Amino acid sequence: MSEARVTDETVKPAPKALPRGPTEGPLTPEELQLSARNHSMPLEALRYDITPLGLHYLLIHFDIPMIEAAHWRLAIGGHVARPLELTLNDIRARPSVTLPVTLECAGNGRSRLFPRPVSQPWVTEAVGTGLWTGTPLAGLLAEAGVAENAVEIVFTGADHGLEKGHELDYARSLSVAEAERPEILLAYAMNGQPLLPQHGFPLRLIVPGWYGMASVKWLTRIEAVTEPFKGYYQASNYHYRSGPDDPGEPVRRIRPRALMVPPGFPDFLTRKRTVAAGSCRIEGRAWSGQAPVERVVLGIDGRWLEAVLDPAPGLFAWRRWSCVWEAEPGEHMLSCRATDASGQSQPLEQNWNWIGVGNNMVQAVPVTVR
Amino acid sequence: MSEARVTDETVKPAPKALPRGPTEGPLTPEELQLSARNHSMPLEALRYDITPLGLHYLLIHFDIPMIEAAHWRLAIGGHVARPLELTLNDIRARPSVTLPVTLECAGNGRSRLFPRPVSQPWVTEAVGTGLWTGTPLAGLLAEAGVAENAVEIVFTGADHGLEKGHELDYARSLSVAEAERPEILLAYAMNGQPLLPQHGFPLRLIVPGWYGMASVKWLTRIEAVTEPFKGYYQASNYHYRSGPDDPGEPVRRIRPRALMVPPGFPDFLTRKRTVAAGSCRIEGRAWSGQAPVERVVLGIDGRWLEAVLDPAPGLFAWRRWSCVWEAEPGEHMLSCRATDASGQSQPLEQNWNWIGVGNNMVQAVPVTVR
Question: Could you tell me if B162 lies within 8 Å of chain A, comparing CB atoms?
Fold first, then answer.
């Protein structure tokens, strides 16, 4: 077999060039490959207050780094009075806090956009609620002594790769004031266990209320800087742009969203649901990073019913909602819609932008009642 | 908003009917939805002998059942002398065995087929190796006393739904002789922890050497039967068919496959790899359910190098392989190919069949060296 060449394209037509911007065309093999490696939370897991291990969504830009805790160090430096280099045990010896936090990918809902930005093609399930344990970032920043002229704190992970021609370690920043919020954690445990490799072992940032891109995984460096950070994932990606030349506004806090546990049972291929006629309790979870969720309505073919909200398990975690529907035989379209205390509701139509972030359009679940 | 109707199709063209058989057309939204909920193992996790929790592949036909262990029972019945009804503690009190087992979905590689059968569109990553703990099935079958005229044992799970018009609980059978193999487990733990909900909590079958469809999750019933089982997932699905009218041969044991840890680092969107010139150790894992893997070769642009094989962690688990490549600047196509002790090697071209099972065509990894 010395002459045999493997091309992965022995029979298929040659692959087409990727669209350069949002497309009206079909899904590409590149999007399928991303969808295969980045995990969604199957929607039936909305039944749990805390998402079981392995069901929380995962968005991993490059490869999962394989880090040995014994050799790992966290450097805290830049414009600080007392640079620190800490082992994992050093960090575990600091005061610890455990918080339930709902994280959601900024790109959640992207594949429902038309035209569709070509990137990780989430449907609606890029969410999860972990019980995160760590030490408050503010305490370590105080130990290091952030300089008065510092404007931002930059967080760098061990994950390395290329995006749009930029070769880089994944990095994001927060303003000093934001970084000092008491709920921001350097987390080393999730659901009572050391972080799994794919969730940032041995240490990650958790920024409650913000879309997931802020919660840098596999942390290696924290630096205070005196100029706003211009890294690719801060200044170029993760902006609400109307088109390629619009600098846009940065993506920050999670927009309100409600999702339902799909009722009844599914068809394997289409996921279309079948429900028994009669009283049917529809339940789900709702969250917003901007303000507490105050209201959820369940839509039945365009008629809206008030849902009952349970208390949230924490300030930054989703709330369970439920509503009884008298299901009558036939075809129905169910949806749910959250409103938060800032007055924002989910849009009924797509929330379109150039890179497909923050699309919190209401979920639509077609159901056959019989 | 009482009149507002949510359709999920406010701007998109109306969805097309799904192709009825294999298609030369683009990926469908239904395949994307399946790809979102069924998890692949990111290929960098080939670095681990035992796949960390949350990185093992998942194929879930219907919804993940939410089962409370306190109310759950396993019924062992049908043509047996002494029907049993067991609690989880009853099963945990039986002799326990812990085995590393590589499981792979029969549909792994489906999306690489042309024409493409429309179902879960795996690329190459539907695999994982768990450390499974349970009690041997054979012991419980002996306790129950399988009747002499029984021909098969049927395993039924709690997962319920529709496929191709069949409404059913997921169920599969094994011949009595196969079911009595000593390595077949009723497993209640994975990687030292109680099963996660998505892996079959509280109890699942593990059939080492077979594709994953045999390892029924969320077990509720085990029945000895005197006629071959004709359930949908036994008699209709999971067959190697040449076309819609060919009954085909049943899918059973895992065909040989080697995969590599993608070298260097990726581009986010294309996953194309960049590698530094010079000596580069390429590593991966190889497995076969038919016989031990005896040889792996690494392909570099059609030239094949012998890889070194490490011992397997168990009779039914993958083996690590590695090979040093002197990487020269330019574009290269890497591949790897396993051969097992039965003499079977992976094909260089697609292993096509009507429903896209058992496609163990060699992996192809394009790499830029610089």
Answer: yes
